[in-house]
């Protein structure tokens, strides 16, 4: 039996490089799933936040976008891959740093992601209610009923399993990509170069550094898809074994290239259309760039398309964050000493998510700024700093030491955390 197992293992290892030489459908599905988790509702506010700093900070942020996001998520993926077979991120932390550290990171991981899930529940309900009322001229049903139906519909996708979630997200990415491209191209005739007027005004080094310091956090979290990285890494390890790092890096690189190219084209198209004063007005009104453009142009096409795009963006981000939130909640339940069966655990988690998301969506609290400020430092610590610390301390990750990208990721993580703490203090 052992000889047969060894033979199968050798055949698997021998076949893996051949599989790596050809891109397959599952790789594409994961690439779009990663894209779908990262590029969501936050993208619709990115042109406002990124464009307010002026031309040169925007150009520098554009150049930093790919290395910031790729190296950080690759580090977190490698961290999960360094654990034993089938271990998620919370179990890998426990394996490398001990039970107490595992419990702490699991708690932080859950409370960094779950509040974002609540915000998506609120945003989804608001988007659909507004669409029914203003575009379809239909009186929306009671908020409690509408939010329950919407969240239940998304959880129905969740109940189909992780692969169904990733597939659904990858399918939803296509219309979202088309919509962003359509809007970016539609705006080209309206480019007035408003932000280019600031190109001749090179800011003082101290002012430039201060602007970048505060703006980097916006860029980092607009491309964040850490909630799905654990599931992604586990699937790559199952499929490719010792070659998982190589294939996951390829998938991450393509996903981030797609993110950066598409989103930056959309961002530049928006900021070339609107003046810095108009961007400031949009921020003051707390509107997404789509809502502001719809009001600015009074265009029925944009007015009708904006809520549909927002619905797709929020839905796919909800699904991606659900994977991370449910993973964290399951870890908390197991670490509390209770060990229900797998099916019972899934039902408990789903019921908890449904009830809490429904209650919050019905109450419609205004807590987005607080969640971004409080949850941000935790996400930065998990995404940027924890994998870099593990590379220094964990023998299984020793082969990644001495790379320049490690210094870069650590620096960006410290910048992101310090800026968010500064925003919280002021």
3D architecture notes:
The protein is built from 17 helices and no strands. The longest helix has 37 residues, at 99-135. It has a single domain (24-425), classed as Amino acid/polyamine transporter I. The chain is globular, with a radius of gyration of 22 Å. Helix 4 (55-81) packs across helix 9 (205-222), helix 4 (55-81) packs antiparallel against helix 11 and helix 4 (55-81) crosses helix 16 (368-393). With 426 residues, it is mostly helical. Helices cover 80% and strands 0% of the residues.
Short précis:
This protein has 17 helices and no strands. It has helices at residues 2-20, 25-38, 46-51, 55-81, 89-97, 99-135, 143-158, 162-186, 205-222, 226-240, 244-273, 276-284, 289-297, 300-335, 342-363, 368-393, 404-425.
Poorly predicted residue ranges? 1-18
Report the biggest beta sheet as strand number plus sense, adding barrel if it closes. none
Number of helices: 17
Overall 3D form = globular
User: CATH-wise, what's the superfamily?
Assistant: Amino acid/polyamine transporter I
Question: What radius of gyration results from the CA coordinates?
Answer: 22 Å
Helix share bin: over 70%
Number of strands: 0
State the end-to-end CA separation: 65 Å
CATH class call: Mainly Alpha
Query: Whole-number average pLDDT?
Result: 82
The CATH architecture would be Up-down Bundle
Protein structure class: mainly alpha
Portion of residues in beta strands equals: under 5%
**SSE sequence, one letter per element:** HHHHHHHHHHHHHHHHH
Subcellular location: Cell inner membrane
Organism: Pseudomonas triticicola
Transmembrane segments: 30-48, 54-72, 104-124, 144-161, 173-191, 211-234, 255-274, 302-323, 344-361, 367-386, 407-425
Keywords: Amino-acid transport, Cell inner membrane, Cell membrane, Membrane, Symport, Transmembrane, Transmembrane helix, Transport
């Amino acid at each position: 039996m052992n000889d047969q197992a060894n033979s199968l293992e050798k055949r698997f290892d021998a076949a893996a490089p051949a599989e790596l030489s050809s891109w397959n459908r599952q790789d594409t599905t994961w690439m779009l799933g990663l894209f779908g988790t990262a590029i969501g509702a936050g993208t619709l506010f990115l042109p406002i936040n990124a464009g307010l700093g002026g031309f040169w900070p925007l150009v520098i942020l554009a150049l930093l976008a790919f290395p910031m996001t790729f190296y950080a998520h690759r580090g977190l993926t490698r961290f999960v891959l360094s654990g034993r077979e089938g271990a998620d991120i919370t179990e890998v932390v426990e394996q490398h740093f001990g039970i107490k550290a595992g419990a702490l990171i699991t708690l932080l991981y859950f409370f960094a992601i779950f509040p974002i899930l609540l915000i998506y529940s609120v945003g989804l309900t608001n988007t659909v209610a507004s669409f029914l009322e203003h575009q379809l001229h239909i009186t929306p049903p009671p908020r409690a009923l509408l939010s329950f139906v919407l969240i239940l519909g998304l959880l129905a996708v969740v109940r189909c399993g992780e692969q169904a979630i990733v597939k659904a997200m990858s399918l939803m990415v296509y219309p979202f990509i088309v919509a962003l491209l359509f809007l970016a191209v539609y705006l080209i005739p309206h480019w007035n170069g408003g932000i280019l007027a600031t190109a001749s005004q090179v800011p003082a080094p101290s002012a430039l550094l201060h602007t970048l310091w505060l703006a980097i956090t916006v860029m980092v979290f607009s491309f964040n898809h850490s909630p799905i990285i654990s599931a992604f890494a586990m699937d790559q390890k199952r499929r490719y074994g010792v070659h998982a790092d190589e294939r996951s890096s390829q998938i991450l690189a393509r996903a981030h290239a797609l993110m950066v190219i598409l989103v930056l084209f959309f961002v530049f198209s928006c900021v070339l259309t609107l003046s810095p004063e108009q961007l400031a007005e949009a921020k003051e009104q707390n509107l997404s760039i789509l809502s502001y453009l719809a009001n600015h142009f009074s265009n029925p096409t944009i007015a009708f398309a904006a809520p549909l795009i927002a619905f797709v963006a929020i839905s796919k981000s909800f699904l991606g964050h659900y994977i991370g939130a449910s993973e964290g909640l399951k870890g908390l339940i197991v670490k509390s000493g209770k060990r229900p069966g797998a099916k019972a655990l899934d039902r408990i988690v789903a019921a908890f998510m449904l009830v809490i998301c429904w209650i919050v969506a019905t109450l419609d609290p205004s807590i987005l700024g607080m969640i971004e400020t409080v949850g941000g430092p935790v996400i930065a610590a998990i995404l940027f700093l924890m994998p870099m610390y593990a590379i220094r301390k964990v023998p299984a990750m020793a082969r990644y030491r001495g790379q320049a990208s490690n210094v870069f990721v650590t620096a960006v993580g410290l910048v992101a955390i310090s800026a968010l703490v500064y925003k919280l203090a002021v």
